[in-house]
Specification:
It comes from Celerinatantimonas diazotrophica. This is DUF4440 domain-containing protein. It holds the Pfam family DUF4440. By secondary structure, this protein is α+β, with helices and mostly antiparallel strands. Helices cover 24% and strands 47% of the residues. It has four helices and six strands. It has a six-stranded mixed sheet. The chain is globular.
């Protein structure tokens, strides 16, 4: 579970999202996402979105990770996240789920979904 959490958190970082090699290592080529906005993305569109991002002084806080074994090579990672601005303001409270698959070379995210949720206390 720790490697999945580390890889999930890595994808929150601007530097990783700008590194095409890292993104290709972490995201499966058939990746799909339903964002917290309700918009859908595939591998190609998420790459384009990441490449057009601007750096920010805020960060994504994540907590309450839970990993559910679906198959020996398939894991469901659940957690909560929130956006923390440079001034410390907290917003965009979200429940998240990611499906990770083991490809033989490493774990890659194949699906991700974010759903808005009620405020929660940051740990």
């Amino acid at each position: 579970m720790e490697v999945l959490i580390e890889q999930e958190i890595a994808l929150h970082r601007y530097e990783i999202r700008q590194d095409l090699n890292e993104v290709a290592r972490l995201l499966h080529s058939s990746f799909k996402e339903v964002g917290r906005s309700g918009r859908s993305f595939d591998y190609s569109s998420i790459l384009g979105m990441m490449q057009s991002e601007e750096p920010s002084n805020g960060h994504i806080h994540s907590q309450d990770f839970e990993c559910i074994l679906l198959e020996p090579s398939v894991q469901l990672l659940l957690y909560k996240s929130a956006w923390v601005s440079e001034a410390g303001e907290v917003s965009a409270f979200t429940k998240r789920s990611s499906i990770w698959v083991f490809t033989g070379q490493g774990w890659q995210m194949k699906y991700h979904q974010g759903t808005p949720c009620e405020k929660f206390e940051l740990l």
